Amino acid sequence: MVQPKPATQLAATGKTPFPGASAAYDDARRALLAEEIEFRRHMTRLTEQRRALPPGPVITKDYRFKDEQAFDVGLLDLFGDKQTLVTYFWMYGPQRERPCPMCTNWLGAVHGNAADIKQRVALKILGRSPVERQYAFAWERGWSELNFIQTVGDDYANDLGLLNADGSENPALVVYQRDGDQVRLFWASQMTQDMADPGQDPRDAPDVASLWSILDLTPEGRGTDWYPKLQY
Q1: What residues contact 75, with CB distance under 8 A and at least 6 apart?
Q2: pTM of the model
Q3: How would you classify the pairing of strands 84-89 and 122-127?
Q4: 50 in a domain, yes or no?
Q5: What whole-number distance in Å separates Cα of residue 64 and Cα of residue 76?
Q6: Domain range for residue 169?
Q7: What's the domain count of the chain?
């Protein structure tokens, strides 16, 4: 097995794209590049470790849903002809006048890749609102590639711990795997709010929201008091 070159050795070949950089900038940028290479390697190890998870638990409860045509279906039906099902439970319950802005922002980014994602896996957006209501908002946003599913009753949301005492909701990113005529959990986001480091908003690693990934590239960063809105 060929061993990778040290990150510092690779970073030493990096070139600042414009002339006139100070020595301090070039040195700091090479040091950062080495860290970025190490981070990429760590992300690769993380994805390999995730794919190597042993079989997850079989989903035994008969959760019911209404699909895109408002037909009654089970969890296995949501796979279609795929072996893997990626689901996102978004915060658009019947008590909300409008969906969560953060969920909306994330889904907007996912929509741009949905046609490609669905070549490999099934992708379903789950919500407690009637499926017609979810699609009405999707039409408003121009989301033509996302498939919205209504959770029937609150067993699904309750079992995942997504409903709060005040009636509000939490989002959930969950990946399922087909196992014959059964469904197994493959992976679910488990970074809860109490796992956030001091001074940081709770988030996954790597961050699946492209909004924050782009802002992380800027000198201003994410900021501490700004969040996306449904309208500007």
Answers
A1: 59, 63, 65, 85, 176, 183
A2: 0.91
A3: parallel
A4: no
A5: 10
A6: 64-188
A7: 1
